[in-house]
Description:
Order of helices and strands: EHEEEHEHHHEEHHHEEEEHHEEEEE
CATH superfamily: Metallo-dependent phosphatases
Mean pLDDT: 94
Largest sheet: 6 strands, mixed
Radius of gyration: 19 Å
Number of helices: 10
Strand content: 15-25%
CATH class: Alpha Beta
CATH topology: Purple Acid Phosphatase, chain A, domain 2
Helix content: 25-40%
Distance between the termini: 24 Å
CATH architecture: 4-Layer Sandwich
Low-confidence stretches: none
Oligomer: single chain
Amino acid sequence: MHDLIGDIHGHADALQRLLKKLGYSRQNGIYRHPDRQAIFLGDFIDRGPKIRETLEIVRPMIESGAALSVLGNHELNALAFHTPHPDIPDEYLRPHNEKNSHQHAETVRQVPAGELASYLEWFRALPLWLDLDGLRVVHACWDETRMGKINSPVTDEFLYSACLPGGSLFEPVEAMLKGKEARLPSATTFRDKDGHERTATRVKWYEPPEGHTYRTYAMASEPIDSDEQLPGEVIRAAVPYPEDAKPVFVGHYWLKGACPELLRRNVACVDWSVAKGGFLCAYQWDGEQKLDAGKFVWIT
């Protein structure tokens, strides 16, 4: 059985406490459970105070088989930040502007360059999703139509296509690792968790959009104040997650609350904003196809 662990963002102390609470112990330097396996939802890096220590915990767990993981958007961003642009000299796939440099600054500061290069190569080996016996795992959005367009592994050519607007993989990878978005009505904006003004909102991709407004179809972490009905292009582009499909676990969404809640009976998010005043969260999955909010475990 599996323990699904949400976005860590360099909070190694919380990760160690959570692993111990879940019954993992350190054996020969690697956290293991006698009969369970962890699954990480990605986003190990950026923001937090102990990024290097986080990587030193999760990588040995994954390489030894004590854990599995999917690629997070922060790992993809890091690969793009350090991969030269194929057509523009002295530029990178992820521009080194103030916003992007600030987001990645703690990783660069805390992880020595040689070690970071090794971790970047390791990130390339992480799958974008897991489709296992009884459950599914992806960082932000499960959409089999888009998955069918993606070829792994994460080579330079993959990164060129996935990280440069206009590439054939740009839209599918953006959806899977960053979530689907709907452009807001004109003059409607909001500020995200980092204070940036946004003109599009991440949506509840797992729900049918019919009958929703922008406010009700936006993810709970994005405070949209518009009761305008969704336009036809948003409804036509939707691929709701079937209610009878096996459970899918995601991270990414910076949810808030005193305790975790399910998104739906077969959809759970385990990102509860440890890097923004929330808590590190896990779900203890034991094969159930109808998820149970009582099986969340977290560290406050």
